[in-house]
Amino acid sequence: MPTALITHKAFTGHDMHPSHPESPARLESIWRALEAPVFSALTRTDAPEAEIGVISLAHPAQHVEGVFGNMPLEGLTSFDADTAASIGTREAVLRGVGAVTSAVDLVMSGQVQNAFCAVRPPGHHAEPDQVMGFCFFNNVAIGAHYARSHFGAERVAVIDFDVHHGNGTQAMFWNEPDLFFGSSHQFPFYPGTGAQNETGQGNIFNAPLSAGSGSQTFREAYEQRILPALEGFAPDLILVSAGFDAHRDDPLGQLALSEDDYHWVTQGLAGIAEKCCDGRMVSVLEGGYNLDALATSVAAHVEALMEHSG
Ligand SMILES: [Zn+2]
Fold first, then answer.
1. Cis ω on the peptide bond leading into residue 191 (within 30° of 0)?
2. What is the crossing angle of helices 24-33 and 291-307, to 10°?
3. 11, 43, 161, 260: which has the highest count of C-beta atoms within 10 A?
4. Would residue 125 show up in a list of annotated catalytic residues for this protein?
């Protein structure tokens, strides 16, 4: 079975400011990288617009309505110090959620082995009732709930290797012992959460990494902490919050990963997916702000997904 790539041109219509690091150029850079011949075997799918109601799987309906009610008809609307909506944001947000739910459809129904969703805006900082940190709605948390409600998945895991802690995902999973959250991230750092003693119901596994940490520390965190816990949890589906801003060249983070580390961690996750859940994985883009490092890192990540399919 192939690997799916799910994306859409409308993701470049979400445009906060020419100098904002979470820029449309990020996706253009990824698309160029994924045009290389090695990626010709990808099953390419346009991300559909999700029904607004699907977002309420992870967010209160009143909050969802409020966010869409504040989307601008012209100019920008600010939602927090770092996050604004433009005219194209509504469609991008709906297609971002739609990318994840259609990836879950394809993977859970056995049409593809695994999938990468190249989407904007990202999602893992979105709290249940708050837009935050470039994120409107929590794509992976919606995907986890969708896999449970639409496919009967009992146990769903999210692994987050973005340089920032996925505070929103952690908050949504905190009281849900059948949902697993494992995260490596720079700490202390934005958004402030992600200490090792934040464990929820024993279903949250944080691996905080000090600024300057590189490949060895990152791999030890996965080998010793996150991967064993994930295998013990025995998920029916693994979702990945795939942020690439822990790369050494990223302007926002101070970790020092390379493309090889993204290939390595993806292989490790795919290996556990093969043991636990017939290889079912859905990966969703989060951060990554050096356009060249983002492109090469995504390529390494998607190559590893492809090596575990087919
Ligand atoms: Zn990030």
1. yes
2. 50
3. 161
4. yes
